[in-house]
Amino acid sequence: METAGIKSLEAREILDSRGNPTLEVQVVLADGTTGVAAVPSGASTGKYEAVELRDGDRSRYRGLGVLKAVEHVNREIHSAIAGMSALEQTTIDQRLIELDGTASKSRLGANALLGTSLAVARAAANLQGIPLYRYLGGTKATLLPVPMLNILNGGKHARGSTDFQEFMIMPIGAANFNQAMQISSEVYHALYKVLEDRELNTNVGDEGGFAPQLPANRDALEIILGAIDKAGYKAGRDVVIALDPAASTFYRDRRYVLSREDVALSSGEMIDYYVKLVSTYPVISIEDGLAEDDWAGWSSLTARLGKQTQLVGDDLYATNLERLEKGISRKASNSILVKVNQIGTLSETLAVIKRAQQTGWTTIISHRSGETEDTTIADLAVASNAGLIKAGAPCRSERLAKYNRLLRIEQDLGTDARYAGTEAFYNLKRI
After folding, report:
1. Catalytic residue from among 166, 207, 292, 348
2. Using CA atoms, how far apart are residues 321 and 326, in angstroms rounded to an integer?
């Protein structure tokens, strides 16, 4: 067996940031080189995502165990790829897809496939003695992404808070990634003080953002503007705001139901709602502003706001190339959120990023609400020159692991490192 040949493959059940089971996979190559990867898990999941295999045994972990996926890795997947070269990522990923044999990866589980795929890439990078971002992106991988930090949580991430799921800040005015994290941390701590002064809840949600009970989504924006000012920065210049309403979660009977504001809006009225927000606040990015099947609405939203606002499809595309192609043809957005576990293999993820970028769309590499200490997405963001990354608030170690990894990458790159800043939004006229 050649040095890069896969000698063994072992999966185990570990716990994610919510205390739920997930999968960790270790690959060992012929020369003893190893690669380890852990798989994230989402709470607000779109119906077009690849299937995360769970055991369904209510006697352990409320049915959320992943021992079936573990067994698939240790037996069937191991037998299928043992001896293959870890340097042949695309070939291995294609073998995994064919082995599963379903469009949704439901037989073996997208978590089983992804854990294997990422562990193989890790092993290959380690074999060559180079960091993962360099292995995947080559010498052109020098762009540090603008972080999109979810500092105020709502929706499914924090029950009883806002209708919208995420309110994020983006430190576009920073000179480098290190300064971007400084600005973000200072605004985050200023937000704590603003909430405390107003006697509002300072508990945090799944992604580390605060989760106060607020009567309307605009109140969250006003509070964040106050925090930016309190931290000594200028909104719209140093820091801008991004939203992730996760509209599919409040879309019922063809209406967008904002329960905290006691309104039910049509698709057109929801678009009007966003137009007012964008004209009033420094909001330059809206993710999942409409439901995952409201294609006509998405096209209308992009026609209205696409030149000045980043309109991001998450549930709409589910990191799926076929759905992305549909979005491109319908001019349904101008950006895509990329989550490796939505599709199940690294190669498919890279293909989606490449296609979106070729179209002139922005690409955002994203975490999930159920995370681990795995930092693959940080390397992926740099490797793909994505220019944007979502990894949660500057709070909770599973979130900060990604940001800290980017700080190390920036130091590793030295004078070659570039911070995306406003250039991340190259397809907008507003920036």
Report:
1. 207
2. 9
How far is residue 6's CA from residue 21's CA, in Å, rounded to a whole number?
26
* pTM as predicted: 0.97
Residue 10 β-bridge partners = 26
Give the pLDDT confidence of 166-191 residue by residue, as tens digits.
999 999 999 999 999 999 999 999 99
Residue 374, classed as helix, strand or coil, is coil
**Active-site residue identified among 287, 292, 339, 371:** 339
State how far the Cα of 383 lies from the Cα of 84, in Å rounded to an integer: 24
Q: Percentage helix, strand, coil, to 5, in the chain? A: 45, 20, 35
Please state, in angstroms and rounded to a whole number, the distance separating the CA atoms of residues 203 and 220: 15
Largest CA distance in the chain: 65
> Quick check: is 348 catalytic?
no
DSSP state of 140: G
Please say whether the beta carbons of 26 and 315 come within 8 A. no
Q: In angstroms, how far is the first alpha carbon of the chain from the final one?
A: 53
H or E element: which one contains 34? strand 34-38
Query: Do β-strands 387-390 and 146-153 pair in parallel, antiparallel, or remain unpaired?
Result: parallel
Q: Is 207 a catalytic residue?
A: yes
- C-alpha dist (Å) from residue 7 to 28, 39, 327: 6, 21, 41
Q: Which residues contact 295 (CB under 8 A, 6 or more apart)?
A: 326, 330, 332
Question: What pLDDT digit, counting tens, does each position of 47-94 carry?
Answer: 899 999 999 999 999 999 999 999 999 999 999 999 999 999 999 999
Burial track 134-170 (b if 16+ CB lie within 10 A, e otherwise)? bbbbeeebbbbbbbbbbbbbbbbbbeebbbbbbbbbb
Beta pairing, strands 387-390 & 418-419: unpaired
Instruction: At 22, list the tokens.
Output: 């997930």
**Residue 136 C-alpha from the chain's centroid:** 18
